[in-house]
Amino acid sequence: MSRTFYVNGEFVAEENATISVLDRGFLFADAVYEVSTVLDGKLIDNKAHLKRLARSLSELSMAPPCSDEKILEAQLKLLDLNSVSEGLLYLQVSRGVADRDFAYPKDARSSLVMFTQEKNLINSPLAETGMHVISIPDLRWKRRDIKTVGLLAPSMGKQAAVDAGVHDAWMVEDGLVTEGTSNNAYIVTADKKIQTRHLGTEILSGITRQAVLSFARKAGYTVLEEPFTIEQAKQAQEAFITSASTFVMPVVNIDGVALGDGNPGPVSKELRKTYIEMALAHQDL
Length: 285
Ligand code: PMP
What we know:
Blueprint: E1 4-7, E2 10-13, H1 24-28, E3 31-39, E4 42-44, H2 46-59, H3 68-81, E5 87-94, E6 111-118, H4 125-129, E7 131-137, H5 152-163, E8 168-173, E9 176-180, E10 184-188, E11 194-196, H6 207-218, E12 223-225, H7 230-234, E13 238-243, E14 247-254, E15 257-258, H8 266-281
Parallel strand pairs: 7-8, 7-14, 11-12
Antiparallel strand pairs: 1-2, 1-6, 3-4, 3-5, 5-6, 8-9, 10-11, 10-13, 13-14, 14-15
């Protein structure tokens, strides 16, 4: 069955969901996006995603396509039309259509497109075995706090991981891990502290990161928001990643080095379980 897509106010069949060749998202990656999780047919932490979207737009002086209320209305209708129970809702805003010119056009109207993907997120087999990652140089631009669709460097990183027969890559800059290709990266130290890089322009401020660090602190964990090296990661008790689509996912091997006994560790497992329970209980975490 064909999915229904949302394109600038219209709900249309996938084959009719098209945008102009002159859309600046296509020509300049002049577009930002958000991916919200859907569990039990409901959006998880969507307010926080819309807040980050507003920030990305503002950092790029891009006009919002409409109010947050209208976006939410369209999101809910799209979920309903596609009967999504578990999966993802992708949302993208581009600066719009204008003849090709590097400077921002004065009269372009930003465009909003959305689609859904049904996906098993809770019962992921990877959560049982844990992920293997490799380290790669971070080739991205310097404003990774803005969630733009300029994703070629992470895409190259993910392909390097696939070519190496592993699940993902952790990017390294100046000897320090920034983040995974599409997720935030963490280690658990010998004294059970959770360590992840501090926020800044070098990484994306993950919505899942925010939720996980908040309840980890409440549960009594010490959280160190400090960068770490790949060598530190290889010697860690455990490691994991977070993102809207993976929640908390254990990492059990880095550059061929097994962490601990090579199985998902207790902290990662507990955080994953708590995140899923909280997400199912309160949709806006
Ligand atoms: N870092 C990067 C580079 C990402 O692409 C993502 C996924 N959007 C994340 C972190 C995790 O963010 P979130 O928890 O909001 O999905």
